[in-house]
Structure formats: structure tokens, C-alpha cells
Amino acid sequence: MLSNDPAQAADDLARWAENLQRTAEKYQELHGRMAAVSVTETSADNRISVTVDANGVTTAISLAPATRGMDPAAVASELMACTKRAQAKLRVQVTDMVHAAVGDDAAGQSIVGQYAERFPDVAPEAPAAPPTPPEPEYTPPAAFTPPPPAAPAPGTRKPDRDHTVTPDEPDDDDLYYRRKSWLE
Q1: Cα 120 vs. chain centroid, distance in angstroms?
Q2: 3-state SS assignment for residue 140
Q3: Which of 74, 76, 94, 171 is the most exposed place for a label (fewest CB within 10 A)?
Q4: Does residue 120 form part of some domain?
């Protein structure tokens, strides 16, 4: 509230302007520090790593060579889990920065509230299943070579071995297929 004394009112306005200037400088500094923040989270088995920026956007993903044999659904699930954990850590860092830079003023609380809404705490996860070993590579068996046929013993030749039996008259199937072309 301004006083009736013009000199006092001018001093009050000058102090008010200085406070606004200091607050603006604090928020400028906070903005610069927040823009430089990034958080990296790594999976428990160190196969997957995700980095997020100050907005919680993924800026880097690192997959160890050991992920090559993993189930793609498991890789995707772990990527999402790492991202959510990194975003939750980001929220904690930003909250600490805001409190250190500007305290508990309304604008600072608004920033903290927005981060808390966008990046909630991550539910503790169940212990991870042990990694599945990669499938063994298929090695074809050595070529099979049957043993040479034994020579028939003399005098053991079966009679009618060279005799071929065919029907005397064609049946319906034979007639049907004789009229068909292989192009049909």
C-alpha cells in the first residue's frame, strides 16, 4: 500500500522494483540451471541406459551388446522403466533447484507442481528375472553317409523281382488325369 507522502511512496516503489529485479534474476538463474539438467538412469543389469533432458524428453539411449539376444518386449519394457525412473529423479532435482533458488513462492510452487504432475514417483519394481541366456547357435550335424549295401549272398535273389504289376484297365482317376493339363 502506498503512503500519502510522495517521497515515501517513491521509496516503496523503488524497493518493490528492486525486489522484482532480484526475483527476475533468480528465475533467470534457475532457468539457466534447469536447462542444463539431464538425468541418466541405467537398468539393474547395466544393459540399458536412458538419458532425459530438463523437459523429461529422452535424449540418449544406450544398449549394451548383451541386449542383442534379449526378447524385444523385455528391452522395450526396460527402456520405459529406465525413462520413468530418470524422469522421477529429474522431478526431485528440479524441486531441489527451485527451493534453493526461489524458495516457496507461488511461481516456484507452480513449477514444482507441474513436474510432480508430469513425472510421478515410480512404483517399486519386482525383482528382475534373471537374464535368459542367448539361444545356442544351431550347428548342423555332419553329413550322414549310409553304409554301403551288403552284397546279396549267392542264390538269394527273390523271384519276380523285375516284374512290374500294372492294372489292366485304367480306373476313373487315371482317365480323369489323362484329360487334364498340368497348366490347369
Answers
A1: 19
A2: coil
A3: 171
A4: yes
DSSP state of 129: P
Containing domain of residue 94, as a range?
A: 40-126
pLDDT of 150 reads 66
DSSP 52-74: EETTS-EEEEEE-GGGGGS-HHH
Question: HSE of 118 in the Cβ direction (CA atoms, 13 Å)?
Answer: 19
pLDDT tens for each residue of 127-181: 556 666 777 776 766 766 667 766 666 666 666 666 666 667 777 777 777 776 6
| Sign of the alpha-carbon torsion through 19, 24, 29, 35 | positive
The edge-to-edge listing of strands for the beta sheet with 38-42 is 38-42, 48-53, 58-63
**In a domain? residue 184:** no
**Residue 24 placed within a domain:** no
